[in-house]
Write a structure and sequence with these properties.
The complex is a heterotrimer of chains A (741), B (321) and C (199). With 741 residues, chain A is of the alpha/beta class. Chain A is built from 27 helices and 27 strands. In chain A, the strands form nine sheets. Chain A has a six-stranded mixed beta barrel with strand order 19-23-20-22-21-27. In chain A, strand 14 and strand 15 form a beta hairpin. The radius of gyration of chain A is 26 Å and the shape is globular. By secondary structure, chain B is mainly α. Chain B is built from 13 helices and two strands; from the N terminus they run αααβαααααααβααα. Chain B has a two-stranded antiparallel ribbon. In chain B, helix 3 packs parallel to helix 9, helix 5 packs across helix 7 and helix 7 packs antiparallel against helix 9. Chain B is elongated and about 75 Å long. With 199 residues, chain C is of the alpha+beta class. Chain C is globular. The relative contact order of chain C is 0.20. The chains are: A alpha/beta (741), B mainly alpha (321), C alpha+beta (199). Chains in contact: A-B, A-C, B-C. At the B-C interface, helix 2, helix 3, helix 5 and helix 9 of B face strand 2, helix 2 and helix 3 of C.
Chain lengths: 741, 321, 199
């Protein structure tokens, strides 16, 4: 999220693509409602079904799932045609927009109507309303990301905002709404298989940086891997780990996966549940560490070597969490862990001791910095403060330097001293933004609530776009233009990211010999903090000031291109907008694309599948389905179906139906009549588990732990499909067939 | 003077009656602002979009119920509870009971199974009516556990009565159909206003008994249905939409009908009790051993007597007694 | 609070998003039996473009409460501040209050003997009942008495979008009026946390 929720109250137009904040962020939605009330902001919702958010919208477009890129190209077509774009902004702050304009020319409103199903007139009205009311903010969530072209979707939306000059403005930006408590924190710590914490990647340089900061020998770390090359190879993803067990598609690993340890994650909320179940059955060892019985341990037929470890909930532990708007909040313990529950770190430390790497695991919390080097400064550590300090000390890529436990605790004690709309503190918190939104470059920096804002000084949270890809591409300058300098910066216009070698030249300063000796190689690994210090003194952000790239030369599609979903209802369009060729070794497993799309699935599976959330439940539903009041509101799994479609199949409101997927799986759910879905699609909430393809798995639950509500998982019928870059499952665009049960 | 007070008196009554009449007659249709278009979902219809839709319609049956309950129910019941027994007391004192000879032949009128059904129903009534009255005047009886217990007994009585109402309806249906002589009976009020012994135009059942029968059975069935509706409170709204009524309106109509019928049933119940226990000496026997004396039958049910004699059935019926 | 305060609920259907926080918070706070919804959110015209809206309904604590007028046991009492409460010990569960209520607020849990319908339960505006204030008896029969503790009723306290507001009628209408008058005025900043719902 480049801006923050309160900032939405500054917006004059809010466009929502594939997100449902009224259901998933009810309290945050208040800001959108206030924008509507106080700003006369126009709320525009683009969604395959008429959601609760759409019910509050001023304009609504019912889009075919997976066709967001054509829609946005349609908008860009009209924007450039009518001159609603911000030419000066594009000149100075965007690289490669010409390629986009060329592609946009092809997407006339009529063509967009054919592909997306949104009438040309509606496209025009929406574009005009959005483009001419500035600042406009663009909100998205899983509806945009969970596609085989999710990585293109999430580039298309910022391109749209860049064309209008909405990025880096109050009331503008791309406000991606994260969906779980502290998922932003988990993302920042990169609990993912392709990078070290803080987005440092897997290069040798990054590993050495972390080894140094953890006080651990790099060679010892290297020896933890089966061979040198595996240290720098991406691992399996959450979406496809099960293929590492089943090996139905070729895997590229030293060994198949034999054991699975799940801590704080919903295995049952991932696509291809039938396969997940098979994989769980084949494991040698399954460990789930959760406060409630994770249904991964339930859907499996495995009866031996399945362990459930009770972990503590958020009320039973202390530490910092990161909100969707990049701010940190300190959480205090309310009650000691109940019964035999242990906090997550207690469990991890206990096993680390058993496995023999406890010392290496915790030494990082006992390190400090002396003369630009990390050294051990004490022999004991205090949890969680020292863990927070370790993060602040090491993670510079996103500027967590300022997140000391003292500052965060002070914010917690004074959380009523901050303004709702600007996040500015008053009284004892004057000069700081609530939660110190990252990047928070130093221990005195106030935080940066709005990313890429060049209208305010860096010392008040301003910055340009990050200069990450050098200073030029094919002879063209990719640093920011002369009119895009940061306010009150001593450096005019664009400048490269700061390194030890270029800092004197870029900032026009002279370093002493000692400073040169202790300074880190570049701003990302400078433990001395000098680069940040001099940068802030000069009023610049350490990471440079470049143009945002609309043209990305490292991605499979240089500019976002529309590609039909793997299971498309429009077989004719799959010829023109075909998907990628099959990808080998995509996070260690061969992943299919074109070979799936070449079949015409729409004949046998004519109905579009939409998945989404309910306000009563979250994620895999493990927690909420154990609450009797919440379960009373949503007691069973259902499919939202339009009465017209239902009557065609002889289905009445409340009848049980079978939903069949192209992969051969099926689920049995109750039909629920509604007009919020069109007659060509159905909606499934994904929070249920405990049934598998018609079979009731209640007997698999540990004694007395069956939730009040169980049901089929929507993910048993979500189709095969994964994003080309991130491998996120294509759960938002699929096909199914229904019949009365 | 008398004339003026008469007008004034009439005016006071009209003031009370007119609104009653008006509300009943014009419990009119209030058009809904925006009918709910979305499909119905199972679940309580009492907390649902249908309930919200029913809100503007409150001025139909909701307001009617409020008006009746606050202005008329307690008063009317009091009138019935006092006036009806009072009238019969006066009748007993002035006119007195009819006496018939119980010597001579006796005829079997009610076989044992009919008597059993009648007494189960009677037990039901004995439970239903006093407990019903207790519910209406619950404040007087202190409410709480006492009246709650009365409510449970009311439900039990309803079950008892419900078991017997259909058999009772069917077993006497033919004899209870209205005939021409019922009009004659009505005009002389069954001969109860005079001490004279005379032949009364009535078959097995006279017009008075018929009135009671129809009220008790069909009225009773309606009371069972409305009572049951109030008991379960929640039933399928899909049917209701076809009738253009909401769940809550059905309940309101149910309680209004239940109360109105209750008044009629109570009044006629008292009448039935008086007639069978006091107004005709010994008539209760016909419900205990099933037999009526020749004297009583010849006079009070003259047409029936003539019929069984003509058809020669009198010997059979007499033998059974 | 004003001398002649009358406590009222108001649910702004432009803000209600059917998040059900009010329903759940009420059930949780008063430990209601599952299935009794003192407060429930109802959505009309679901899925109909431009017509769908939601609102949270519970007892409206009417000034001329029809429920209290028709009750045969006279178990209702209306507090000076307008909150309509009833005595569960007197209540006989006859259902008249439900028939008289325009909003369907009275509910009857099936917790009598043999699963028969018990006595009436309804929203108390978190003001408890005739039992001694904040006693265990009061909690078991009527739920929390937050008004006596100077707290906002649970439902309005948790409403995600401040659609549901409760308080003295004058104050509530003032808030609504200010919300409407603020159209086009832009965001309110700095934002004070001293008012319960802000604007």
């Amino acid at each position: 999220m480049t801006n923050h929720l309160g900032d939405i109250q500054n917006s004059k137009a809010i466009i929502v693509f594939g997100a449902n904040p009224a259901v998933n962020h009810p309290v945050g939605f208040k800001h959108i409602l206030k924008a509507k009330e106080r700003n006369n902001a126009t709320l525009i919702v683009i969604d395959p079904r008429y959601t609760k958010t759409a019910a509050k919208a001023d304009m609504y477009a019912r889009i075919r799932p997976g066709t967001d890129i054509p829609f946005m190209y349609g908008m860009l077509h009209l924007i450039f045609k009518h001159g609603w774009h911000d030419a000066a902004y594009i000149d100075n702050r965007v690289f490669g927009m010409d390629h986009v304009i060329e592609e946009a020319k092809k997407w006339t409103p009529e063509k967009v109507e054919d592909v997306t199903g949104v009438p040309a007139e509606t496209l025009y009205q929406i574009t005009k309303a959005y483009a001419t009311s500035k600042p406009g903010t663009l909100i998205w969530a899983m509806g945009l990301t969970q596609h085989s072209i999710g990585s293109s979707n999430t580039r298309m939306a910022p391109i749209l905002q860049l064309s209008l000059g909405n990025m880096g403005k109050f009331g503008g930006g791309c406000n991606i709404l994260r969906g779980h408590d502290n998922v932003q924190g988990a993302t920042d710590m990169c609990c993912l298989s392709h990078t070290l914490p803080g987005y440092y990647g897997l290069s040798e340089g990054s590993w050495k940086y972390f080894a140094h900061n953890w006080g651990v020998d790099f060679n010892w770390l290297q020896k933890r891997f089966a061979g040198k090359k595996w240290m720098h190879t991406k691992g399996f993803t959450l979406a496809r780990w099960w293929q590492g067990v089943l090996q139905e598609e070729k895997i590229y690993s030293t060994t198949p996966i034999k054991a699975l340890w799940v801590q704080g994650n919903g295995i049952t909320s991932i696509a291809q549940q039938a396969k997940v179940q098979q994989a769980l059955d084949k494991l040698d060892l399954l460990v789930v560490a959760e406060p409630f019985a994770n249904e991964a341990a339930v859907i499996t037929n495995k009866t031996d070597n399945v362990y459930i470890l009770p972990t503590a909930t958020q009320f039973e532990c202390e530490g910092s969490v990161t909100a969707t708007n990049r701010t940190a909040q300190w959480r205090s313990k309310v009650v000691d862990p109940l019964y035999e529950s242990k906090t997550d770190e207690e469990i991890m430390f206990a096993f680390a001791k058993k496995f023999g790497f406890y010392d290496e695991l915790v030494r990082g919390m006992m390190m400090g910095v002396k003369n630009g080097k990390a050294v051990q400064v004490k022999n004991t550590f205090k949890w969680p403060e020292d863990a927070t300090r370790e993060i602040a000390r090491i993670i510079k890529t996103i500027g967590l330097t300022g997140w000391t436990p003292e500052r965060l605790k002070k914010h917690q004690e004074n959380w009523h001293m901050f303004d709702e709309v600007t996040l500015k503190g008053i009284g004892p918190m004057k000069g700081e933004y609530y939660g110190l939104p990252w990047p928070c470059w130093s221990e005195t920096h106030p935080g940066s609530p709005v990313l890429y804002n060049i209208d305010i000084p860096v010392n008040e949270g301003g910055m340009g776009f990050r200069a990450r890809f050098g200073t030029e591409y094919k002879g063209e300058n990719i640093l920011a233009g002369s009119r895009a300098g940061i306010r009150k910066a001593k450096v005019h216009g664009g400048y490269p990211e700061l390194t030890k070698d270029n800092i004197e030249k870029v900032l026009g300063i002279k370093l002493s010999a000692h400073e040169k000796a202790v300074m880190g190689k570049n701003w990302k690994v400078d433990l001395s903090g000098l680069i940040a210090k001099y940068a802030l003194k000069a009023g610049v952000a350490p990471y440079g000031n470049a143009k945002a790239r609309a043209y990305v030369w490292t991605f499979p599609d240089k500019i976002p291109m529309h590609r039909e979903p793997l299971h498309s209802p429009r077989y004719d369009l799959t010829k023109k907008y075909s998907t990628y060729p099959d990808k080998k070794n995509h996070y260690r497993v061969d992943t299919k694309y074109a070979s799936i799309q070449k079949t015409d699935w729409s004949k046998d599976f004519p109905i579009l599948l939409i998945t989404g959330r309910l306000v009563e439940y979250s994620g895999a539903g493990i927690i909420e389905r154990n609450s009797k009041y919440l379960a009373a509101l949503q007691p069973e799994m259902f499919a939202d179906i339009n009465p017209e479609l239902a009557y065609k199949h002889g289905i009445n409101d409340g009848d049980m139906i079978w939903v069949h997927a192209p992969e051969g799986t099926k689920i049995r759910v109750k039909a629920r009549f509604t007009y919020s879905v069109a007659p060509d699609r159905i909606f499934l909430p994904y929070h249920f588990a405990g049934f598998m393809q018609g079979a009731d798995l209640s007997s698999h639950y540990p004694e007395g732990l069956v939730p009040f509500a169980t049901g089929e998982s929507a993910n048993t019928v979500t189709n095969y499909g994964y994003d080309i870059v991130t491998q996120i499952p294509e759960t938002k665009a699929g096909l199914v067939r229904i019949e009365k049960a | 003077m008398v004339g003026i007070s008469h007008t004034v008196y009439k005016g006071k009554i009209m003031k009370k009656l007119l609104p009653l009449l008006g509300t009943v007659l014009f419990a009119g249709n209030v058009p809904l602002a925006e009918p709910n278009q979305a499909p119905l979902h199972p679940g309580s219809a009492l907390i649902s979009p249908q309930m919200i839709e029913a809100i503007p319609g409150w001025s139909r049956y909701g307001e009617l119920f409020l008006y009746l309950q606050t202005h008329w129910v307690k008063m009317l019941f009091l009138v019935i509870l006092i006036a009806v027994p009072a009238v019969f007391l006066i009748h007993y004192l002035i006119v007195g009971p009819k006496v018939f000879s119980h010597d001579g032949r006796k005829f079997l009128i009610f076989p044992s199974w009919q008597r059993i059904i009648h007494w189960i129903a009677a037990l039901g009534f004995v439970l239903l009516i006093p407990t019903g009255v207790m519910i209406i005047y619950a404040a007087f009886f202190g409410g709480g556990t006492t009246v709650r217990f009365a409510r449970y007994l009311h439900d039990i009585g309803a079950v008892l009565f419900a078991l017997t109402v259909l058999p009772m309806t069917l077993m006497w249906l033919k004899e209870m159909l209205p005939r021409m002589w019922d009009i004659k009976w009505m005009m002389i009020l069954g001969g109860y206003l005079t001490k004279k012994k005379q032949e009364i135009p009535a078959s097995k059942f006279n017009a008075g008994q018929k009135m009671w029968y129809w009220v008790a059975t069909f009225g009773g069935i309606i009371m069972i249905i409305t009572g049951f509706m109030m008991y379960i409170q929640n039933f399928n709204p899909a049917l209701l939409n076809k009738l253009d009524l909401h769940q809550i309106d059905i309940l309101r109509i149910a309680v209004i009908v239940h109360l109105l019928l209750a008044m009629v049933v109570t009044a006629l119940f008292f009448t039935h009790v008086y007639m069978s226990l006091f107004a005709i000496k010994g008539s209760i026997d016909s419900m205990i051993d099933g037999c009526k004396s020749e004297d009583e039958l010849k006079h009070l049910h003259s047409i029936y007597y003539k019929k069984i004699v003509k058809e020669g059935k009198d010997k059979d019926l007499a033998d059974k007694c | 609070m004003y001398n002649n305060a009358r406590m009222k609920f108001y649910c702004d259907e432009d803000r209600c998003i059917e998040c059900n926080a009010c329903t759940i918070a009420c059930a949780e706070a008063h430990e209601l039996p599952v299935g009794i919804h003192r407060r429930k959110v109802v959505t009309l015209n679901e899925g109909i473009e431009g017509k769908e809206f939601s609102t949270s309904i519970a007892c409206m604590h009417c000034t001329d409460a029809p429920c209290s007028q028709v009750c045969p046991v006279d178990c209702f009492y209306i507090r000076e501040d307008g909150i309509v409460l009833h005595d569960k010990d007197k209540c006989i569960g006859c259902g008249y209050c439900l028939y008289a209520c325009p909003f369907g607020a009275p509910q009857f849990p099936k917790d009598g003997a043999f699963g028969i319908r018990g006595v009436m339960d309804k929203c108390t505006m978190c003001a408890g009942g005739p039992k001694p204030t904040n006693s265990t008896d009061e909690f078991e029969l009527y739920g929390q008495n937050r008004i006596a503790e100077g707290k906002v009723p649970m439902c309005a306290a948790v409403c995600s979008t401040n659609a549901l507001i409760v308080g003295d009628a004058e104050s509530v209408s003032k808030i609504k009026r200010e919300r409407d008058a603020a159209k086009g005025k832009g965001p309110k900043t700095p934002y004070g946390w001293d008012i319960a719902y802000g604007l």
